[in-house]
Design goal:
It is built from 13 helices and 18 strands. The relative contact order is 0.16. It is an alpha+beta fold. Helix 6 packs across helix 7 (223-229).
Length: 367
C-alpha cells in the first residue's frame, strides 16, 4: 500500500524466501475483504486454497453448522500467502531483500531514522528512512530496539500442536470439550491442517510425547476426525508451541510503528493473527497518508489499532481458557434453535458483528 502510494519502501525478511512458518493459516472474512480490496484475493484462489464456505462447531450436545458469513474464508499455506504479498509489494515498487537481519536502529536524536542490517553475504548495510515498521513477530527485534513498552499483558493460557494430512474430508470446523479444542482447516494441495489445543498447565506433559497427546485429543474430542486419519497420510512433521503470549505493546514512537504480532499478540485459538495483521497494516497505511513519520498520524494509528483489536482479544482470552462454561453452553444451545442465530453467531466469531447485536431480546430471554 505504501509503495503503491509512491513511497520508497525497503522490505527486509530475516528468513530465506519463500518459507513456511508455524501458523493456524485461517484468514477470516474481514481479512478476505482486504485481500479483495488490495486486488490479491484472485491470486489466493488461483493458488488452490479451497474456499471454506461452511463452518461447523461441535461441543457436548451442540452441533452448529452454517454457511460462512459474508462469503468464504481461506486457509492458504504461509509460503503461498507470503509469496503473493511479497510479489504484490515488489510489483508496486518495493525493494525486497530476504536473509537480511536487522542489527540496530539508526537514530537522529530521540527519533528512529532507519535501520542497520546484515545481508546474506554477512556485510552490514544502512538504510535511512522516515518511518521504520516492525512487522517482525511476537519476539520483535524492532520493538526491542525501539524500547516499545508492553501496555497490557495476560498469562499464557493454551499450548497447541499442528499436523498436516492428505486424504481427509473434515471440512472447516471446530470440536471442543473442557481442556481440549480441535480445529480442522483445509489448505493447499488437498491437505488439511489439524490443530489440537491443551491448557498451558499441561505443556510439559504434552510435549513429552506430543504425538500421543495430539492423537488422543483427536480420539476423545473429535472422533470423526480421528477415524479419517487411518485412511489419511501425514505430511511433514508435528509442530507445536507453548509460547502463546497475550499482550499489547506500544504501537508507535518517534519514527517507528509496530504491525501484526510485533505490536499485539494473542492466543492462536481464534486464528485471528493474519486477519489482525492485515487490519493493522490497512490502518497504518490509511493513518500516515502522505506524511511518513508524522507523529500525530502515528498516534492516530495507535488509537485505531487498540480500538479494533480489544474485543477480539478479550474473546480470545475467554476461549483460550478451554472451559466449557454453563453460560457459554446455554448460549450455544439457544443459538442452535434458529439458522439465522447460528449464522449470526459465526459472524461474531469472524469479527463481523459485535456480540451485543447477537444478543437481542428474544435470544437473551432463552439464555
Amino acid at each position: 500500500m505504501l509503495a503503491r502510494r509512491g513511497w520508497r519502501v525497503l522490505l527486509l525478511d530475516r528468513a530465506e524466501f519463500p518459507s513456511d512458518t508455524m501458523s493456524t493459516l485461517y484468514v477470516h472474512q474481514p481479512g478476505v475483504a482486504l485481500l479483495r480490496r488490495w486486488g490479491l484475493l484472485d491470486a489466493v484462489i488461483a493458488s488452490g486454497a479451497p474456499a471454506l464456505d461452511t463452518v461447523r462447531y461441535r461441543v457436548e450436545d451442540v452441533d452448529l453448522a452454517a454457511p460462512a458469513p459474508e462469503g468464504p474464508g481461506y486457509g492458504p499455506r504461509r509460503r503461498v500467502l507470503d509469496s503473493i504479498l511479497v510479489e504484490a509489494a515488489v510489483a508496486a515498487g518495493a525493494e525486497f531483500a530476504d536473509r537480511s537481519t536487522v542489527v540496530d536502529l539508526l537514530r537522529e536524536g530521540d527519533r528512529v531514522a532507519g535501520v542497520r542490517f546484515r545481508g546474506p553475504d554477512g556485510r552490514e548495510r544502512r538504510a535511512r528512512a522516515r518511518l521504520v515498521v516492525g512487522a517482525d513477530g511476537m519476539r520483535s527485534r524492532v520493538a526491542e530496539l525501539a524500547g516499545a513498552a508492553t501496555t497490557a499483558e495476560d498469562p499464557r493460557l493454551s499450548c497447541v500442536y499442528y499436523s498436516r494430512w492428505a486424504g481427509l474430508d473434515t471440512g472447516f470446523g471446530f470440536h471442543e470439550r473442557t481442556g481440549r479444542w480441535i480445529a480442522t482447516i483445509p489448505t493447499n494441495d488437498g491437505e488439511t491442517m489439524v490443530a489440537t489445543y491443551f491448557p498451558q498447565s499441561r505443556f510439559d506433559e504434552v510435549r513429552a510425547d506430543a504425538r500421543a497427546a495430539h492423537l488422543d485429543a483427536l480420539a476423545t474430542t473429535a472422533p470423526s476426525v480421528a477415524a479419517q486419519l487411518e485412511g489419511g497420510e501425514q505430511v511433514g512433521r508435528l509442530v507445536g508451541t507453548g509460547d502463546q503470549r497475550n499482550f499489547f505493546r506500544e504501537a508507535t514512537g518517534p519514527g517507528w510503528a509496530l504491525v501484526g504480532d510485533a505490536g499485539h499478540h494473542l492466543d492462536t485459538i481464534t486464528a485471528r493473527g493474519i486477519t489482525n495483521a492485515f487490519t493493522q497494516a490497512d490502518l497504518l497505511a490509511g493513518s500516515v497518508g502522505d506524511a511518513p513519520g508524522d507523529q500525530a498520524a502515528l498516534d492516530g494509528f495507535a488509537a485505531r489499532r487498540d480500538e479494533a483489536m480489544v474485543d477480539g482479544y478479550q474473546a480470545t482470552l475467554a476461549l483460550a481458557r478451554l472451559e466449557v462454561t454453563p453460560a457459554r453452553l446455554a448460549l450455544l444451545r439457544a443459538v442452535a434453535r434458529r439458522p439465522e442465530w447460528t449464522r449470526d453467531y459465526f459472524a461474531v466469531v469472524a469479527g463481523l458483528m459485535p456480540m451485543e447485536d447477537l444478543l437481542d431480546g428474544e435470544l437473551l430471554d432463552l439464555i
